[in-house]
Amino acid sequence: MAANVVNSWLAEAREALRRLEDSLAQRHGLCRIEVSLVPTEGAVTVGGHVLVDRLRAPVLAAVRRAAPDGWTVLDGMEVVQGGPWYALETARVVYASASGGAVVTVLHPEDGPVERLGGVAGVSLVRDRCGTAAWLREPLGAPVEAPRLPRPSSRDPAAFLDAARSFEGTAYRLGGTDHDAIDCSGVVQRAAWGALRVALPRNTGDLWGLGAQPGKPPAGRGHLVFVWTRGESLRHVGIVGEDMVVHASLSRRAVVSDPAQRFYAHAARIDHLPFEAILALGERAAGKPNILAAGVVLGRVESTASATVADSGA
Asked: Which of 144, 169, 191 is the last residue of a domain?
């Protein structure tokens, strides 16, 4: 392909990325897309850095739209790491944008310190040990050293299940992650840390992205199961017990333990993540400040189903 043609579409791609960065900065308060486009014959590699993993998909999509037909777009991006860490002195709600918006998660002092990625007008964009990037409107605590995730403290699926069941009766609220209110992925995340000392991604799409497999889980406890059904969220997750599933039910507005038959009823699709995959992530992340440093990619876009991963963070 002629050099002038390649240069033309590279310029178009760079302009598209600039517009994307401006748009997301206006929406969330801060966005960094610092990537390079390196063309080779029939392919272009997108290198450089982005602020959060969720930027990978829109960046790649913008480059693909500009690339010539038949060209392959390769992901060589890395996520920005290495910001200063600060303690949390009280419970904090963090939001999807600097101005507020949707609640992304609720952090407590025992969740460990947060990494500051940037800020605007006194509001900080922070990232926790689970890789969640969101906006904290209250002041940060004292500077601290970067944390180190532990190895799994237990390999007992029953302990994992019991930790999830401790939330039974807790009210359902999207973005909730504690005994005041919690959502389906929050139950999984809290139970994994409380019982196993394994840090898991914050939302259901990212839990699924750890390597979910088609079909119902095998016999045993502690597996994660994902269903697509009209009665719950677009992609809903629970923790498997013996012929039952613990989950935060959107339709019943509380955490419940359901017979497996009821949980699977009306599901258009069922996937599962083996309990062993949770422990494997814990081993891989040990000694690192967050699960991103262990190679976990957040915000993967699923191409095999109608479900989409919601954008949160910057």
From this structure: 144
Same domain, residue pair 48 and 170:
no
Query: Are both 280 and 180 inside the same structural domain?
Result: yes
The pLDDT value given to residue 115: 97
Q: Residues 110-144: pLDDT tens digits?
A: 999 999 999 998 899 999 999 999 999 999 999 99
Q: Within this chain, do residues 164 and 275 fall inside the same structural domain, yes or no?
A: yes
Q: How many CB atoms lie within 10 A of CB 270?
A: 17
Angle at alpha carbon of residue 107, lines to 104 and 109, rounded to 5°? 170
Q: Are residues 129 and 231 in the same domain?
A: no
Distance between CA atoms of residues 183 and 146, nearest Å: 28
Q: Give residue-wise pLDDT tens across range 18-56.
A: 999 999 999 999 999 999 999 998 999 999 999 999 999
Q: Give me the number of domains the chain comprises.
A: 3
Q: Strand, helix or coil at 299?
A: coil
pLDDT (tens digit per residue) in 92-111: 999 999 999 999 999 999 99
Q: What is the CATH number of the domain that holds 187?
A: 3.90.1720.10
Identify whether the C-beta of residue 314 lies closer than 8 Å to the C-beta of residue 261. no
Full domain range(s) for residue 130: 85-144
Quickly count: other Cβ atoms within 10 Å of residue 107's Cβ: 25
Mean pLDDT of 303-313: 33
pTM, rounded to two decimals: 0.89
12 located within any domain: yes
CATH of the domain at 127: 2.30.30
Tell me the HSE value of 311 on the side-chain side, using a 13 A CA sphere: 12
Which amino acid belongs to residue 243? Answer: D
Nearest 5°: CA angle at 111, between 105 and 114? 75
